[in-house]
Here is the input.
Amino acid sequence: MTWAALGTVLEDVEATGDLDFAVILSPTGDVLAGHTRDGLRLEVIGVMSATMTASVDTLLEELRGRRPDLVVVEAGGERFAVSRAADDNLLVLAASSASSKRQLVASAQALRSKLAGTASRGKLRKHTVLPRP
Here is the structure.
């Protein structure tokens, strides 16, 4: 995925204004790209999101024999959506729990579709972070 393609994928994050962050992670938690509000440490978001996802994956593989394509977690007044993206990467979105779960899931699905559509243009490199406009 190219820099321009990534910019196109994450433009919707700023447009909605409802998300605290949207990041694209490697399966190990390396931040490949992200868009956050000021002051959030992407490295912490990456590692903890990958850890949360691995925990849910392991639990559901044990219970149901498969891992989910989308996980939504609500805690501490925040809602997180983690979705599988191109090349087995993860797309992680966060918003206040006061915002709609349906909207968060729809945002995750829309960004995931955009990622799938641009994945054939090349792979992301670690720590490609878009600045806030």
